[in-house]
Specification:
Layout: E1 3-10, E2 13-19, H1 30-37, E3 47-52, E4 60-65, E5 71-72, H2 76-90, E6 94-99, E7 102-110, E8 113-117, E9 142-143, E10 151-152, E11 155-158, E12 162-167, H3 176-184, E13 194-202, E14 205-212, E15 216-218, H4 222-234, E16 241-246, E17 249-255, E18 262-267, E19 269-276, H5 278-281
Parallel strand pairs: 2-3, 4-6, 12-13, 14-16
Antiparallel strand pairs: 1-2, 1-19, 3-4, 4-5, 6-7, 7-8, 8-18, 9-10, 11-12, 13-14, 14-15, 16-17, 17-18
Amino acid sequence: MAFSFVKMHGLGNDFVVIDARAGGVPALDNDLIRALADRRRGIGCDQVILISPPEVDGAARVRFWNPDGGEAGACGNGTRCVAALLLSETGHGALRLETESGILGAAAAGDGLIVVDMGRPRLDWQDIPLAERMDTRVLDLRLGPIDAPVLIGPSAVNMGNPHCVFFVDNIAAHDLAKIGPMVEHHPLFPERANVSLAHVEGPRRIRLRVWERGAGITQACGTAACAVVVAAARKGFAERRADVVLDGGTLGVDWRESDDHVLLTGPVAVSFSGMVEPEHLLPGSLS
């Protein structure tokens, strides 16, 4: 059964977006998700996104899957991409989307930017979740030799998915491709973790690189951008509103004091659209 898709990205953080509101889309099992996300044999993406009819209250229900087939509770840039599609479809200036992490509001912010309200960050150890009670501002976690650790004391924030943030003086001095999987699968994180290296360049500017669980290093990550501003503000490193500079570009984050919600702002783009036949992607399709 062939179905349509739209390939979109937010600062190079790319998605295969599938609209199932009118039906005609097969069940997205792990095999199909991995096949769609495969950059050599499929369409290729950091996440697969499914849009379906709302169940409670909103314009649509949205689900996210990582390239390994695991479902993600939230995706900031993916939410912004879906919001852009639906806003252009309806002509409205704002909408609400249902996600696994709750109902998120989104709106056009002018100049092609989309802002999404990612809700309140979860900061208690059991909400990250961590395997044991710990101060989430400074985790008891060290990487490297016992007598000379390379990285120590990261912060943890849940923005719909768990994040572990290391603040460093020089991001380039650390091998994120090596550190990322080590921390993602660390016993301290029973649901795995997204892993970030952050350098605070000023009270309103943070440089960030991200390893996403189930995806690896990505050009940008919206929930990681939110998490780093929250973590930096809690530690007194930066203000609650800052620009986060990722490999793919800059996102604006505002941890609003009035209600503790985190607002994420940035551009989105459509790369291309098309039709895909799942049977052509799965192993043995030509046998």
